[in-house]
Write the structure tokens for this entry.
Amino acid sequence: MPLHVAFLWHMHQPCYIDPASGVALLPWTRLHATLNYLHMAEVLWAYPKIQAVVNLVPSLTDQLRAYARGDLTDRLLLLATQDRWSGEEVNYLRSLCFHAPRRFIEQHPRYQELWAAPQQGDAWGEGDTRDLLVWFHLAWTDAGWLEREESLRRLIHKERGFSRGDLADLLNVQARMLSRVLPLYRALEERGQVELSTSPYYHPILPLLVNTTSAHEASPGLPLPRLPLRVVKDAAEQVRRAVVQHEEHFGRPPRGLWPSEGAVSQEALAGIAGQVKWIASDEAILA
């Protein structure tokens, strides 16, 4: 009898948005989209016989849509539009912009040179900061786009001495990439190749919302608050909001749900029942 295996790809980024400023404090939603999320969808589109389940978490899809509409920016993106940077801003950029695949840094002498500069005590100028911004964003761009886009090939060949216009060209390409992510996943599902699932809206651990004492089922003796928390309706509302949001993005409600961290309990299942057709969890959790 054949074994049927479903691959579930879980894509999750937390909400990085500062509620006071409306600016994302960290750029990882944007950068994972240009390096990974779009690439995954394009590979699937190129191989229509390959099927998959892709779990897109509400906090991720809300931010992707906001970026695509131009309604969201992040601290790094704002700094990238400046002509000059304060010492504090340069230190921030130098602490952030080497969070890139090490092999990519090593493949490009200018990026490697910038990486080594602090250790060697080299002087650092405005041109170095802009070069660092360009190389960091190139590192977080899908290799296929680096090969196809003439403007990106030109930047890699130029290597150093980038202008403000060079950086703007790169960010414009990334903006185009961001705008394609959600529509392409929707098209994959409409083609019948991919099933899109969701997770509870704010990514809570559902069993703990339903009853904090459920933690003792997995970890007997675990210290817990003296007064147990039981917000059963809130747990069900987390699922309801996720289903509504998913339908807004993709035109149909999800059939499946990946509970945050795969956490389930009998009580939590009662709040999920009737809202989706299936859930998935982890073998160790279910044991």
About this structure: Residues 52 and 264 are 23 Å apart (CA to CA). Residues 201-286 form one domain.
